Amino acid sequence: MIEKVLIANRGEIALRVLRACRELGIATVAVHSTADANAMHVRLADESVCIGPPPAAKSYLNIPAIVSACEITGADAVHPGYGFLSENARFADILAEHDITFIGPSGDHIRTMGDKIEAKLTAKRLGIPVVPGSEGAVPSVAEARRLAAEMGYPVLIKASAGGGGRGMKLATNESGIETAFNTARSEAQAAFGDDAVYIEKYLGKPRHIEIQVLGDGQGHAIHLGERDCSLQRRHQKVWEEAPSPALNADQRMNIGSTVAKAIADMGYSGAGTVEFLYEDGEFFFIEMNTRLQVEHPVTEMITGIDLVQQQIRVASGLPLNIAQDDIKISGHAIECRINAEHPKTFTPSPGRVEAVHFPGGLGVRVDSAIYAGYTIPPYYDSLIGKLIVSGVSRTECLMRLRRALGEFVIEGVETTIPLFQTLIGEPNIIDGTYDIHWLESFLAED
Known about the structure:
Elements: E1 4-7, H1 11-23, E2 27-33, H2 40-44, E3 47-52, H3 63-73, E4 77-79, H4 89-97, E5 101-102, H5 107-114, H6 116-125, H7 141-151, E6 155-163, E7 166-171, H8 177-192, E8 197-201, E9 207-216, E10 221-233, E11 236-242, H9 249-266, E12 269-279, E13 282-289, H10 296-303, H11 307-315, E14 332-339, E15 351-352, E16 355-357, E17 364-368, E18 375-376, E19 383-391, H12 394-407, E20 409-411, H13 417-423, H14 427-431, H15 438-445
Parallel strand pairs: 1-2, 1-4, 2-3, 4-5
Antiparallel strand pairs: 6-7, 6-8, 9-10, 9-12, 10-11, 11-14, 12-13, 14-19, 15-18, 16-20, 17-19
């Protein structure tokens, strides 16, 4: 079993991993930039190491510094959390070269699923339904125009190495294909150093459904149901819930079984999420995230499974200790991402937190690393906490969320709590009848 874990991350996810390690009796090492010297995970870890100045490139993305911190402290494993180096295949390979366990999949699997074109081809080969589109990178405007005519407009031009909406452009007709193609390639080169793009059919009003999986690399894999992540702004998730209001039990079982079999056939090890667009009863693969997701707590709340502990067990070389029949989905859960941003303009709001009061009570969980007197630095993502609530039904969950949002107090900085207080009263939210375009349309009307 792993004995000491270095947590190569910060904020609420670093604290989340630390707690899982503590419950398993595993020692922890916190790494931090100079801006995070007073962070909560640094205070609570058994050991801490400063790995550089505030910019992420010189600290949390500094692979030599992280490897050195492992050697200094004797950490035999690294948990990358999400973001930063969590899907960096080279990092996983370097750790392996130093006999340090990466708590995640192999570098090869990260590399395969990190390339959007290769991921789509792999998914198709494994029997996962995919969005109609090109078989690989599209080399020219002429080829893009031919493929678009073949599959029908509208179409999306997407960066092969992309994510978060960067390098993604919509072409609604033939006259727009050249601009979309050239712009997507330029953005892809600027953001990822790779201008390869591919083309796929654009779905009008889909939902974003993702399947949580666990594999042990020994031929066994299970799924833990789905999450609905359709409430998004600029391709960034804002609100997630499980199960999805759009699926029935048969759909859930069928897509979950398909994905779990594919993951087992891959020989995949660790936690992962296979993401789909869902429209008119059909699922279309879009990508696989080879890491823990921000929204993993909603799955934990309805299954009772600690996903971080399972990651650590599998990384230690142990087989899965859970069979598919052991997974029982109970009730409903919703997560709201609390950002230090203005609730209407979404302008970042770093600064000193003057006062904090987290909501509590049955079925209420807050994952956050802020505290009164803490200064939110301006260098990183604005996510400062996650409010997760659960109930026996979606209706009870919504009522509990309304109550919890009313109790949630963060003073000194702007937050997105008021946005969720508005959303909770919207008929489409209450009914669960929203798609991936709903939130942006709602915000545009406000």
